[in-house]
Amino acid sequence: MTTALLHVSSDHLPLTATVPPRPRPATQPLTVTSHPAPPAATVLTVRGEVDMLTSTQLQDHLLPLVRDTVPHVIVDLTGVSFFGAAGLTVLVNACAVATAAGVTLRLVASTRPVLLPLTITGMDGVFDVSHDLVHALMRAGCGPDG
């Protein structure tokens, strides 16, 4: 039995297809603002993408609010275009802090990028989720009669 060796000339290197990497769209900046909703709530409005790079910004704004500042903290996520696992982690941690402080954490979510992760993980059953800010404010006693 003889073994055949293949000789490859360096003059004829095999062609390889190269595909340039697809540039990833820049992350939409995250903006987080808060304002009081008398008599008993603070609304935290979140806009942009909540991912592992921006979730600390959300955490830095949210955690001080849920430490016994007002009876209700409402996080308005209707302007969020992406909501990843890091964002869910921030909400779960904030919920634990809020519960310990006697503060109710409510979410406003009406878009697929936010509702889908909440639903898949079962967190929609843990959080008080409203589809609009007016409904969340009314549930917090900040509506026209409260």
Please specify the SSE layout and strand pairing.
Layout: E1 31-37, E2 41-50, H1 55-65, E3 72-83, H2 85-101, E4 104-108, H3 112-121, E5 128-130, H4 133-139
Parallel strand pairs: 2-3, 3-4, 4-5
Antiparallel strand pairs: 1-2
Helix pairs in contact: 1-2
Family: Belongs to the anti-sigma-factor antagonist family.
Protein name: Anti-sigma factor antagonist
Region (Disordered): 14-37
Task: Please provide a written account of the structure.
By secondary structure, the chain is an alpha/beta fold. The chain has a single domain, classed as Transcription Regulator spoIIAA (2-Layer Sandwich), CATH 3.30.750. The protein has helices at residues 55-65, 85-101, 112-121, 133-139; strands at residues 31-37, 41-50, 72-83, 104-108, 128-130. Strands 1-2-3-4-5 form a 5-stranded mixed beta sheet. Strand 3, helix 2 and strand 4 (104-108) form a beta-alpha-beta unit. Helix 1 packs parallel to helix 2 (85-101). The N and C termini lie far apart (94 Å). The mean pLDDT is 85.
Question: How large is the count of helical segments?
Answer: 4
Q: Count the strands?
A: 5
Uncertain runs with pLDDT below 50, 5 residues or more? none
Based on CA atoms alone, the radius of gyration comes out at 24 Å
CATH-defined architecture: 2-Layer Sandwich
Provide mean pLDDT, rounded.
85
Strand line-up of the largest beta sheet: 1-2-3-4-5
Total count of domains: 1
